[in-house]
Structures are given as structure tokens and as C-alpha cells.
Amino acid sequence: MIEAYRNVLKEPKFILIAAYSFLMCFEYIFVEALGGDSIFKPYRIAGIILIAYAFLNACYLKKVKLDSYDFLIVLFFSIHFFSAFSTAGLDGSGMYYTNQNIILILLSFLVCFSIKQFLENDIKLIELIVFLFMLATFINVIYAIYSVISNPVSAFRISGFYKDPAIFGVTVSILITYCIAQYLYVENNTKLKIIIFIVSTLSFGVLLLAASRTGLLSLFLVVSVVGVMKLGFIRTLALLFIIIGSLIFVNNIDFTNFSPEIQYGIGRTFDRLSIENTLGGGGAGRLPTWRAAFLLFEDNYFFGIGMGQYPEYSIQYAQLLPEGVENSVVLEYNLGLHSNYLSALIEGGIIGFIVYATLNFLWLVNSIKAYTYLKDANSLFFLLFFILISLSGFTQETFQFPYYLFFLTMLTIYNRTILSGETKA
Full-prediction pTM beyond 0.90? Predict the structure, then answer.
């Protein structure tokens, strides 16, 4: 990895990719530091420079790499965007959410497309770029721990706890998944195993503090998958017991003797993990939202209504739910779908869902092939990452998550490198 680091420093294009990977994880620390959101965050600036670099390089060489994944991704999002324009044109609905999605997803796609133009078939280089992401995530974990120690009352607002627990939680779950994959393949290095264990433990503690139900559920299922593949029955049960036991512990902490500020802050955060809070109101409004969305799907089943358009219809279709199903959440707020798969089906229609299913099928098959062929820590991590992001997609829309397309791009390049047999490693 040291040699890969030296190679990165020799090439501006690799420096930009590495900077993008590292800086991406500070999404919400930037918000806290700057006091507001902005498209011109450091990782986005690195991405914009990378896009410009790739464009100039393509003009000079008159060559652009395009694969089947690029074609399907462009087709998938194009269906969503053009459906949104046609829907809004017909019924006059607003396009605020769609326009926001277009900017963020287009920027993310162009960055990832640029990375594909530059990244060579060098496993060590791919490993380094992934490692930088994990390092930055762990810095977020340390920052969160520091925030809790220095100011417990407002700790739940730090590192995305308040902004969006799901995004931060899934990011930390990716780090823990990476640690699990690395730990399983470490041999004759006790010190490294101890370091990985400490990083995993601290990260899991912060995942609990973030109260990310999506992150915890996805991690729980990933551990189950790892158990079937590598750990054995006893060790799998031990890990699952730790996760469940931790949830039971934090849900039984009595905050009544604490100050009102702490009750509202950390107590409110932990309360998110209770079964009553999770299932109450249909999973924070998800279940009735999905039922209302299916009613909308019946009216727009072929091409859908367009990405980001569901909040424009959510209250209207919530009114059509049978008595006893609706609740105040879905009747009073414009809610998103909180599911990749439902977004693909309802906002992209049957055509969009087929394209999305094809994409995921290709990623899954090639990830399994790469792991079967190599069977090392990184091939296991990429397979587990795909499982993690696929599972989290059931209860959260991850299309706008900063790392979603980035890691799927890295997974695509990694699988291509392994399966082509052209790696420089």
C-alpha cells in the first residue's frame, strides 16, 4: 500500500480521486462547521476539478471508456428525469425535489464516470482509495466520540446524527463491514487484529449513538451473511447477540433522572431504537407511505412519475388509504419513499424497475464471481458492501447518498480488474 500511495502522489488524477474518496466522509461535519449546506463542499470541489480534468483528457486523446453499467445507469436516471418532466407538465406538480436530485446525482455520476476513465487495473491502487474512505469515516467516529464527551447534550446533532442518521449510520456500517472482512483474512499479526477490533468496537458504539435503524439492521443482516460464509455458527451467534444486547441495553437506560436537555438530546436519540418508536406509526410513516405509493403506481405504472416526485403526491394519496391505516405523519408531511426499490418502481415505472433490477443483478453476479475467483479480504468486502447497500435500500433511498455511486463504481472497476485477469498487482 505504501507503493500505491507513492504512485498516487505522482499523478494529479489519482490525487483528485483519493481526495474525493477521503473528503466525501466529512459531509456533515462540513455542514456543522460552515453553518449551512452548500454544493461547494471540499469533496465536490475535488469532483468538479476531476470532471474538468477528464473532459480535457478526453478531448486530447479523443477516447472515452463506456461500459454496460454506464449505459444502464444513464438509462435508469433518464427514465426518472424525463418522466418527472412529463408528469409535472401534465398535472402542474412542482419539481423542487426532482431538480435537487438532478443536480446531486448528475454531479456524482460525472465524477464516477471520470474515475472510470482514469483508474487503472491496479488492485493496490483501488485498495488504497477504499482505505482512505475508511480512514476518513473513522475520523468521523473519533469526532463523534469527542463530541459526546465534550458536549453530551448536543452530541446527537454531530456527524449527521440530526441531519440524517441513515446516511451516517450506513457509512459507519460500511466501515465495520470493511473491518470484518479485513479481520477474517489477517494471519500471524495479533497487533493488527487488535487495532481492527478496537476500530470496530468504537465504530459500533457510535453507530448506536447515531441511532441509525437502517445502519444497524443492514449490519445485523450482513453479519448473518458473513456467518454463513466464514464465521461458523457459534461466532455468528456471539456477534448477533452483541448487536441485539446493545440495542436492549440502550433502550433500557432510564433518562428520567437526567436534565431535560439530556432527555431531549441523547434520550430522544436512543428512543429512536425502541421497537415502539420503530414500528409506531408504521415504521416512522414508511408502511402507510408505501401503501399510498402503490395506489399512485396503479395510475402511473409504465414510466412512473419521475424521480423525486412522490413527495408532491404523498399527502393526496395518503387520503385514499383505508380507515385505520393512515396516521398523522403521512397526512401532514410531504414524505419521500425511503426505499430504492419502491423509488425505482413507482417513480421509474415498470421500465425503470427492470433497468434497476438488471443493474443490481449484474453487480451481484460479478461480485460473487470476483470473490469466488480471489477469496481475499477485499473481494469479500466488496461483496459484503453490495449486500449492505442493497439491504439498506429496502428502507432508505440511497441514490443521493454521497458514497452510493462512488462505491458501486469502485466495485465495478474492482470486479472488472479481477475477472479480466489484467491486474498489475
Answer: no
